[in-house]
């Protein structure tokens, strides 16, 4: 289920500001209260895919460790896409909430 | 030096699986290397164990390479879509320059080969028009596709369509270039190499180079498709 929403999760993690892959993964863990512990490698192809789709932009920077790292940031299209996905998700989540409200676990008749 | 080996072996495997796209391979290697050393630095366990864990948590290099390859394939297809139109525009400019040159010099085909020239001219026109129409269709189709999540049957179908459209555009353009070449040979038959013949020769060279460039680009798509499919098989 998480995989189907990976793009939205990555976009949401970058909404706080530009970050490199490792920081994106940490942000996802932190903001989800450690609930989303994604396989780390899957985030990078998602970052590349979102960049190719024009939702992210990236550039190389030199870290304090002197290593080169790729930093990603939301583009305007990315911000719009995140807002759209958030609206769709809220609608969906409210609908499911309404649907489940008042339901009880089914018991087999005696 | 097992300590340095765990991460570098993993990076070698990942980079080698992506060797069909050198710039992607270099970029992924640098990004993943930075990530893995960050994980090691944050881990409380001893270095060697931290490296093993970092690599294990990152995932199978072949599986990851296949995911990167899908994005690379989508990029290459989009590039070819744009290249189709640029190449057609370039060929058109070369064609028009040659025709304008003939008109300026009042250099017409000789009477006896004019009927043959007319037939070849028609083949040239129709094949060029078809390459423009199919090329625009290919660009519209490729541009309308979303970046895929995986190399699944839906994406393979989409790739096949894009490939056929690009190949058909190139095939018609090649027919047009061959027709142009034949017409140019007929036009210059008996003429000596001079400043007068320079522009037709250069414009033909441009057209041939354009068609060759497209063939090379389409071959690039086919190569990446094969490499991606091979990654999924392993």
Structure notes:
The complex is a heterodimer of chains A (110) and B (234). Chain A has 4 helices and 3 strands. The model of chain A has no long low-confidence stretch (mean pLDDT 88). In chain A, 28% of the residues are buried. By secondary structure, chain A is of the alpha+beta class. In chain A, a hairpin with a 5-residue loop joins strand 2 and strand 3 (68-74). In chain A, helix 1 (6-13) packs across helix 2 (21-31) and helix 2 packs across helix 3. Chain A has a 3-stranded antiparallel β-sheet. Chain B has 234 residues and is mostly helical. Chain B has helices at residues 2-17, 22-42, 47-58, 61-104, 114-144, 153-188, 195-233. The A-B interface holds A 20-22, 39-42, 44-45, 48-49, 52-53, 63, 65, 67-70 and B 27-28, 30-35, 37-39, 41, 57-59, 63-64, 67-68, 70-71, 74-75, 146-147, 149.
Radius of gyration of chain A: 18 Å
Structural class based on helices, strands and sheet pairing of chain B = mainly alpha
Helix/strand/pairing category of chain A: alpha+beta
Uncertain ranges of chain A: none
Distance between the termini of chain A: 35 Å
Order of helices and strands of chain A: HEHHEEH
Order of helices and strands of chain B: HHHHHHH
Largest β sheet strand count, sense and barrel closure of chain B: none
Average pLDDT of chain A, rounded to a whole number, is 88
Specify Rg of chain B, calculated over alpha carbons.
25 Å
Give the assembly state of these chains: heterodimer
Q: Roughly what percent helix of chain A?
A: 40-55%
Overall, the morphology of chain A is: elongated
Low-confidence stretches of chain B: none
Amount of helix of chain B: over 70%
| Tally of separate helices of chain B | 7
Beta strands of chain A, count? 3
